[in-house]
Fold:
Amino acid sequence: MRGAAGFTLIEMMVVIAIAGIVAALATLQLTGNPRRELFEQSRHLAAQFEAAGDQAALRSKLVAWRPTPSGYGFEIRDASRRWVPLHDAVLGDARWQVSVTGVEIREFGRADPIPRVVFGIEPLGLPVRVILHSTLGNILISGAGDGRFHAEQLP
Structure:
């Protein structure tokens, strides 16, 4: 004679374990990896630096990037030689997506940090290093002076 229909305890435990693993994976996908997000933000910023160099050449005006405590923005030098905010779809003001605690900008040949990265009218310029400091790690965005920028995680 056959017993009552149903699931065994082992089958129920396997189903619950699988459901738990799927829920854990979904949670990891939703929260993301903050270190990876910081690196992706720095790669996006490197691409914006390249776009800023292109804009400076196209407009025949100096364009600059300046960090702020909560984010960063791009500026353009006007006819009276003042830096004014650049309101552009690509080069507008932005907030840090991941916690950045400090920014250090160094230009080749200068001992002291500088307040902004300046993109000239000519495609060639001085090499520059921008270090984003974060509790998650430090990121270096470097430009060799040829208009291209590269982001890398520092040890």
The beta strands are 63-67, 71-77, 83-85, 94-95, 102-107, 117-119, 128-133, 139-143, 149-153. The CA atoms of residues 16 and 133 lie 43 Å apart. The mean pLDDT is 89.
